[in-house]
Amino acid sequence: EFTSDKKYALKDAELVLFSAPSQQYKTILMDFVSEGLLPEKAILVNVSKGIDMDTLETISQITSRIVPAAT
User: Fold this and answer.
1) Residue ranges in the chain assigned as alpha helix (H)
2) Cα dist. 24→3, 11, 48, 52, 59 in Å?
C-alpha cells in the first residue's frame, strides 16, 4: 500500500528504512523524532551516506546523537 502520510505509514512499523540526502539528513531525522513518527521498538535502518559539512559528523554519528536507542 502506498501513502504519502508519514504518520500512517510508520504507525505500526517494525522496521524503518530511512534515506535522506546527507546535507538534509539531520533536519529530517530531527523532524521525524520531534513529531513522534519513529515507533519506539522499530528497527531503524539508515541507507544514507556522507557527512554533515557543518559538524563533520558521519550519518551514523548523527543518528546515534539524535536517536540514542538506534545504536
Assistant:
1) 6-10, 22-34, 59-66
2) 22, 23, 10, 9, 11
CA distance 70 to 2: 26
**16 near 48, Cβ under 8 Å?**
no
pTM: 0.84
Strand partners for 17: 45
Would you state the pLDDT for residue 64?
93
For residue range 9-30, list pLDDT tens digits in order.
999 999 999 999 999 999 999 9
CA count, 13 A, side-chain hemisphere, 43: 4
